[in-house]
Amino acid sequence: MSDILVISEQRRGTLNPIVGETVTVARELANANGGKVLVAVLASTPSDFTSEVSLAGVDEVIEVALSIPEFQSDVFEAAVLALINERKPAVVLMPHSIDSLGYAPSVAVKGEHGFATDVFGLRYEDGGLVAVRQAYQEKAHVELEFPGKSTVVLTVRGGSFKAPEETSSPAVTSFSAPAVESQTRHIAFHDPEASDGEDITAASCILSIGRGVSDEDNVAQFEELAGVLNFTLGCSRPIADNGWLPKYRQVGQSGKTVSACKIYIAMGISGSVQHLAGMKHVPNIIAINKDPEASIFSTARYGIVGDMFEIAEELKAQVG
Ligand code: FAD
């Protein structure tokens, strides 16, 4: 079969937006090589998401009812393995996420399928699937082939494709997942840090700092600058991961989307797709980076090639 199976994903009742983007690439593959686009919704009440995943290009929604309230890796693994076994798709696409990283590799190994993660380009060449991903700390693009594999499992990078805007009326079917004695247990969601009422998604002016800040001791001067400018302080993921700023200030794919922002100053941020996912819509992006080749400059409206520390001092002097 040459069907493309998309595995949908949701958390706390909200569909992962990458699912829509994944439908787009699934449709492109099906158009190129034939076959149908199937979207499987694995949830305690999958019908809650059926209309949301019924996007243009989807031929069939498969509802897979699970007896768990939220994601558990071994339950998803068993359900997806069984579904692949029954439907025999040529390609299985999942959002590249913390959830899929928990079970996609074992699905690929146990099913002896082809596998690649964080894919942002896909095409057929001479009848074979070619997946594009990055390597060597994002310094090189590599193209992967999967010779001899009748099914290939791929996780798709968010922000790489545009989700369909139109909806459709696909066939809706159901699939019974095998009963699993799960070795994992969902206890609760833990929001690690209270935001003290600060909601970065509601801020109209944000000053965000990235790894260019170099050291935790340097963060304070940018906090001060944000105060002087009356901007809300944001950051890229490495800053939050290092614990230099709280997680609720992180902008991007696994952080916040700064929906209300009108002016975004990015200081010492390279412009990874994951960071852009949370801020590329902002109408006025001002990038400050000492590397003239930094990819943030291709998204920014205004750019300053320079040292963020010197520019911070100058800004403080001008405004303060
Ligand atoms: P770098 O890429 O290291 O860039 C630092 C920049 O600072 C460089 O461009 C450098 O030229 C510049 N610089 C250095 N010194 C100075 C100076 N003195 N003055 C001016 N410029 C200077 N990242 C996020 O931000 N948000 C997310 O939500 C997010 N989610 C992710 C989810 C997944 C599943 C994965 C795999 C990754 C995610 N990432 C996320 C990480 C992302 O891939 C990048 O690693 C990260 O965004 C890089 O952060 P950065 O730009 O601060 O650091």
CATH superfamily of the largest domain: HUPs
Report the CATH architecture of the largest domain. Answer: 3-Layer(aba) Sandwich
Heterogens: flavin-adenine dinucleotide
Radius of gyration over C-alpha positions, nearest whole angstrom: 22 Å
- CATH class (first level) name of the largest domain: Alpha Beta
Q: What is the helix content?
A: 25-40%
Given the C-alpha coordinates, what overall shape results?
elongated
Uncertain parts? none
Order of helices and strands: EEEHEHEHEHEEEEEEEHEHEHEEH
How is the secondary structure organized here?
Layout: E1 4-7, E2 10-11, E3 14-15, H1 18-33, E4 37-43, H2 47-53, E5 60-65, H3 73-87, E6 91-95, H4 98-111, E7 114-119, E8 121-125, E9 128-135, E10 140-145, E11 152-156, E12 171-175, E13 205-209, H5 219-229, E14 232-235, H6 237-241, E15 263-267, H7 273-279, E16 284-289, E17 302-305, H8 308-319
Parallel strand pairs: 1-4, 1-6, 4-5, 5-12, 6-11, 7-11, 13-14, 13-15, 15-16, 16-17
Antiparallel strand pairs: 2-3, 8-9, 9-10
Helix pairs in contact: 3-4, 5-8
This protein binds flavin-adenine dinucleotide.
Residues 96, 210-212, 236-238, 250-255, 268-270, 272, 274-275, 278, 288-291, 294, 307-309 line the site of flavin-adenine dinucleotide.
